[in-house]
Amino acid sequence: EIVLTQSPGTLSLSPGETATLSCRASEIVGSNYLAWYQQKPGQAPRLLIYGASSRATGIPDRFSASGSGTDFSLTIGRLEPEDFAVYFCQQYGNSPQTFGQGTRLEIE
Amino acid sequence: QITLRESGPTRVKPTQTLTLTCTFSGFSLTSSGVGVGWIRQTPRQALEYLALIYWDDDKRYSPSLKTRLTITKDTSKNQVVLTMANMDPVDTATYYCAHRVPGTGSWDVGVFDYWGQGSLVTVSS
């Protein structure tokens, strides 16, 4: 199965800055089927991005993503206080679908 | 408005069978392309896909857990039920059900846009 490795493990930034999160796959992700989720404490994951770069309904354009093959990234521009959370990537191009271990975005 | 809610025991003993129910609203599991999945999250925050069921009763399972899992649906009640046999302390996790975005990948996989609040299950004697 495809192993997704997210980096960094923790990212410390201030509101207003830009965050760049990485997700690297152990094999090529079929059809670039890569999604990103945001999770806040005590809540379920929230879908942000699917198909490597398509924003889900209601997601602000501060969230953007790109990548292909084995290397993907999520960029969050002009960080807002509510953006500080844990972010997971998921590949669904190969069975079984798998998730990364998460990147914690914390306030510096 | 799509909502999902998990229900079931908060604690089970090792070797017992876990039964979780997902009750949903805002969509129909009789509509073509619709699917509901189960995903769990360990105390260390790792997410793991478990199973999917579709409008046509097609069922898909995680290869590593398929011998222990059964997923069923009751469309009259808008419910999806997951059973997991032979529970072990390593199965301690928060179990989520979620609505699969139609058309996201093959039938074995999917992206999930609406999730329940999660059901924490502890396996302990």
Share of residues in helices of chain B: under 10%
Largest sheet of chain A: 7 strands, mixed
- Helix/sheet category of chain B: mainly beta
| Radius of gyration of chain A, taken over Cα atoms and rounded to an integer in Å | 13 Å
Quaternary organization: heterodimer
- Tell me what portion of residues of chain A adopts beta-strand conformation: over 45%
Overall number of strands of chain B: 11
Task: Give the largest interface.
Answer: A-B, 25 and 24 residues
Count of separate DSSP helical elements of chain A? 0
Order of helices and strands of chain A: EEEEEEEEEEE
Low-confidence stretches of chain B: none
Strand content of chain B: over 45%
What does this structure look like?
- The complex is a heterodimer of chains A (108) and B (125).
- Chain A has 108 residues and is mainly β.
- Chain A has strands spanning 4-7, 10-13, 19-25, 34-39, 46-50, 54-55, 63-68, 71-76, 86-91, 98-99, 103-107.
- In chain A, strands 2, 4, 5, 6, 9, 10 and 11 form a 7-stranded mixed β-sheet that branches. In chain A, strands 1-3-8-7 form a 4-stranded antiparallel β-sheet, with no helix packed on it.
- In chain A, a hairpin with a 2-residue loop joins strand 7 (63-68) and strand 8.
- The relative contact order of chain A is 0.34.
- Chain B is mainly β and 125 residues long.
- Helices cover 0% and strands 50% of the residues of chain B.
- In chain B, the strands form 2 sheets. In chain B, strands 2, 4, 5, 6, 9, 10 and 11 form a 7-stranded mixed β-sheet that branches.
- Chain B is globular, with a radius of gyration of 14 Å.
- Chain B starts with a strand and ends with a strand.
- The model of chain B has no long low-confidence stretch (mean pLDDT 96).
- The interface between A and B is medium-sized, with 25 and 24 residues.
